[in-house]
Design goal:
CATH superfamily of the largest domain: Response regulator
CATH topology of the largest domain: Rossmann fold
Mean pLDDT: 76
Oligomer: single chain
Strand content: 5-15%
Radius of gyration: 18 Å
Distance between the termini: 49 Å
Number of domains: 2
CATH architecture of the largest domain: 3-Layer(aba) Sandwich
Helix content: 40-55%
Order of helices and strands: HHEHEHEHEHEH
Amino acid sequence: MADQERETAAQRALLARVSREMRTPLVAVIGMAGLLLDNDLPPRQRYAAEAIKHSGQTLLEILNRFHEELGIAAEPPAVAPDRVAAGAPAQRRVLIAEDDAINRKVVSHMLERRGWVVDVVGNGREAVDAVQRQRYDLVVLDCDMPEVDGFAASAAIRARETGRERIPIVAMTASAKPGDRDRCLAAGMDDYVAKPFSADALDRVLRRWTEPPAGDSHPA
């Protein structure tokens, strides 16, 4: 029985590692295909971009099924009160901390199309420093980054908020590891999205954390 438990634990550890290695390039491929589809493409190019995006999403679904079979399915995002009006007013500023250059470009493009001013950094240490220099309406932190990861960066930002307005922090990860949701909340994050996320998922996050509830002029 003990040998079987060790074998199962080893399988889960291997899948978690393979998942990280596979999901990151898949997220990049899906995101870049989405950027192409935002443009006015000739029919053959649009067909190719749609096929690439669909293939990447299918591979991610297969990977998620492996997770479910081994009992390590992704956690749902943190729940927040519903808010009104998707998108953001002009000149809202967001900080994106993401070590992968392609993912930074994809997320930046999505937010810029919604009227946001976007600043980007490549690790958690740079994110903490940026928040001390500039006021942000939203901070998006990748959980897995070099030097300082998203969890540690969020905790450091919260520790320095004494007497300052609380900044909404959204976690962003491709790992789909169990317990990530609890780790996000414990580190002071407000919400959690798994890459690749759709435009609708992004709009839901913006509604939750960047617009006041109906009848309330102050953020929750």
